[in-house]
Structure formats: C-alpha cells, structure tokens
Amino acid sequence: MENKIIKGYKAFNYNMTNRIGLTFKEGKIYRVVGKLKFGNDGNGYHFCKNLEDTLRYFPARDQEIKLCCVTSYEDVVEYYDDYYGYYNMYAARCISIDKILSREEIINKMLRENSFSVQRFCSLFKLTNEEMEIFKKHFDSDIAVLRCIQYYQENDLDVYTIRKEEKVKTKSLKSINYYN
Fold first, then answer.
1. How large a percentage of the chain has pLDDT more than 90?
2. Rounded CA gap, 77 and 20, in Å?
3. Per-position b or e across 6-18, b if 16+ CB within 10 A of its CB
4. Among 21, 42, 58, 95, which residue is least crowded by beta carbons within 10 Å?
5. What's the predicted TM-score (pTM) here?
6. Is 94 helix (H, G, I), strand (E, B) or coil?
C-alpha cells in the first residue's frame, strides 16, 4: 500500500452513481475506512490511470455514462490484470471528483492517445457518426483502429475475417519457393 497522490479517471452511471449506488458530486472529496482492497468485493474508491480502462466497468456502448478526472490522496492499492492487459488500476482511501468531462473533452483526449488505447476506447464507447468520421480521418493510416471502428461502431462483423480474395493471395505467396 502506498501513500501518494495519483491523478486518473473514474466512470459513473449517468446520474453520477457508482456500481453500488452511491452518489458522487463534482468538486467533492470522499473517504472510506477499513482495509483497502481492489475488486468486486474490495474496499476503496476505484479508478484508473487511463481513461479507456474505466470503460471496462461501465457499459458505455449500451448507455450514457459520466467520465471524471479524479485525484487520490493518502493510501492506494494498485492492481494489474496481466491476462486482459489492464494496468494502473487503483483503490484509494480518499478521492476527489475534480471534473466531469464533456463528451468533446473525452474525444479530444482520445485523439491524442496511441493506437492501442484508441482501439480499446472504440471497442467500449459508443461514438456518434460524426465522431467516427473524426477518428477515421485522424487515424486514416492505422488499419487496426479503422478495423476496430468498423467492427465495434459500424457493426461490420466480417471486418476481421479473411475474405476469399485475401485467401487466394495468401496461398499464392505460400507457394513461392524463396530458395531458388
């Protein structure tokens, strides 16, 4: 357990309640007592260092949510999920809800992120048609981001399947003898 200030992000239901029904307000500080533990049966105010990782806990493709900038104070426990690739997740003794992010602020922040973060975000957050076009234009040479948008946002379920033409091309490449 560490005692340090960490800035990060926390997701809430649209009415600013957490997963167990507690209501939070922007500008307020919250404190929990007892031993800190991360997880569903844990204790502490959970938050993530990366905005897109908060979406793991709220169905942002199915409902509107609020995303907030937060700051932890005092004790925190850190959690990593190597299997699913989630890192820098925390349970804090004391947390402040610094700012509720607007949708525009969320999109602009994610446009500055790396390909992996953007893919995770696009797979978990429902974009408008206009927002999809902004991401496509911004990441126009990143096939992984473009395919992620096609699959998760545009519901193109065939985007990751190998098409017949691609199979033929792949087969012909395999039949070339490179050692002649």
1. 54
2. 20
3. bebbbbbbeebeb
4. 21
5. 0.82
6. strand
Task: Indicate if the alpha-carbon torsion angle 121, 125, 131, 136 is positive or negative.
Answer: positive
Taking only the tens place, the pLDDT of each residue in 107-119 is 999 999 999 999 9
179-to-43, 74, 175, 176 alpha-carbon distances in Å: 62, 64, 12, 9
**Biggest alpha carbon–alpha carbon distance for the chain:** 72
Q: For residues 4 and 111, what is the distance between their CA atoms, to the nearest angstrom?
A: 29
Residues 6+ apart with CB under 8 A from 154: 132
Residue 41: how many other CB atoms lie within 10 Å: 6
What's at 153, amino acid-wise?
Q
What is each CA distance from 78 to 47, 89, 132, 173, in whole angstroms?
Answer: 10, 6, 33, 47
49 vs 70: CA distance, rounded Å = 10
Query: What is the pLDDT, as a whole number, of residue 18?
Result: 86
DSSP, res 162: P
Question: What span, in angstroms and rounded, lies between the C-alpha atoms of 80 and 92?
Answer: 15
